[in-house]
Amino acid sequence: MIVCEGPGSPAKPSLVQTVDSILISWTEPAENGGCPVSSYSVHIDDGESGEFSEANVSNDVQSRNFPTMRSFLISRIAYDIGKTYRIRVKAYNDAGSSESPILGVTFSYLPEQPPSPVKVARLSNSGQLTVDMSDFPETSKGGCDILTYNLQMDDGLGSEFISLVGETQPNLKLAYTAADLQKGLTYRFRYRVRNCRGWSVFSPELFALASQVPVKPHSAPILVSTSSTKVVLRLTPTSDNMGALVTDYTLFRN
């Protein structure tokens, strides 16, 4: 006659999330209690009351009486994105069962692609230009909080992007002012966001011309000729277009 007791607890389970499922994995108990482990089951709570129920709701016979089972696939269809659930594994032998430590998991996915950043301020006299990333929608976060916004910029000559903020250190500011820009150059900006699952893809690029309001003409209009029906004037061009092509001159009179 073999005398045994319930098995030791399985180790805390681990998981791998995909877009539509979660793969729960575990290791066998260090002690079987004197009798071989005969089966395992995976249990998950409802994310609110804390009451657990078996995840094998379809009664899949492949998951019953399977002592070498070390993983179980849970469909995410029945669970809410962004809600945190608790998962545990039970091991069974002829004498009883034991439970693993609880694993908490927030059902989530990578953030969606952000929209393009927005230029919110012209080039300043000190060569600064401000871009904004606040258009990223709440519904695109992927089920968990955004941990950082990573803004990148090129050198205005079409070279590789460099990170300005948010790549190695967390950044949650939605506006950033780039400095030391050269007027007349078009700079490219893009950004990505990271949540508990990882990085999104980069946003579409913003092309921002580093420019200011042009310098006012240095002299008044010059009278060229007059007649009974018209006055001909010569306009003096601006001495500095401040980085952008002058598209129009407007003449005012009293």
What does this 3D model show about the protein?
The protein has 254 residues and is mainly beta. It contains no helices and 17 strands. It has strands spanning 14-17, 21-25, 39-45, 52-54, 71-75, 84-93, 96-99, 103-106, 118-121, 129-132, 148-153, 162-165, 175-178, 186-194, 206-209, 222-226, 231-234. 0% of the residues lie in helices and 34% in strands. The chain has three domains: 14-106, Immunoglobulin-like; 118-209, Immunoglobulins (Immunoglobulin-like, Sandwich); 214-254, no CATH class. The termini are far apart. The mean pLDDT is 86. Strands 3, 4, 6, 7 and 8 form a five-stranded antiparallel beta sheet that branches. A hairpin with a 3-residue loop joins β1 and β2 (21-25).
Task: Label this structure with key terms.
4-stranded antiparallel beta sheet; Immunoglobulin-like; 17 strands; 254 residues
Task: Tell me the layout of helices and strands.
Blueprint: E1 14-17, E2 21-25, E3 39-45, E4 52-54, E5 71-75, E6 84-93, E7 96-99, E8 103-106, E9 118-121, E10 129-132, E11 148-153, E12 162-165, E13 175-178, E14 186-194, E15 206-209, E16 222-226, E17 231-234
Antiparallel strand pairs: 1-2, 2-5, 3-4, 3-6, 6-7, 6-8, 9-10, 10-13, 11-12, 11-14, 14-15, 16-17
